Amino acid sequence: MKDISRNRQISLDVVLAAAVAVGVTAGVILSLGMDEQTLIELGGAGRKLEIALSGEWIRLFINSLSGTAALLCAVFLCGFSAVAQPVEIFIAAFRGLGLGICVRGIYLGGDVVRSMAVFLPFAVLSTWVIISSIKEAFSLSGRYLALSVTDENRLGIRSRIHDYAVKFLMLALLLAALSAIDAAFAMLIAG
Fold this sequence. Notes:
The chain is mainly alpha-helical.
């Protein structure tokens, strides 16, 4: 039984990694037809460095947290649907799409090393948090699907939801901590 669960987990990891990779590739391809100045602005590293130079730590923190927190909320809600697994995989691909567009904008913007230093650590770590949350949501939505197609006992779902909510609270706190570190790091690099 443990081997089956482990194989499913590995398969889900592969699917989510592939979804992010496909999203990044699609983002780069999509960005080929976009205006260079728009791409540079979407990359956001230049703007992030400007805000950091002005010393607005709170603004940097909110900017870092807002987009990823919105994705985290969407993933959280998907966990309560029995048929949300495709949406959860799409969210991973959507995250990759955004990363692909941003990376191309950073390469076009100049000062690539400094811009990547400001962009890449938070992008990678926050993507890991989003992928972790998708795995949790996938598990709960799979549980709801199993309950909806069988006569299985539903008494254990309450504790499962409690655990799910606690895990997401921990992921949200981790995301907030990463955003705070990202804002401080951007100020250090700009400084």
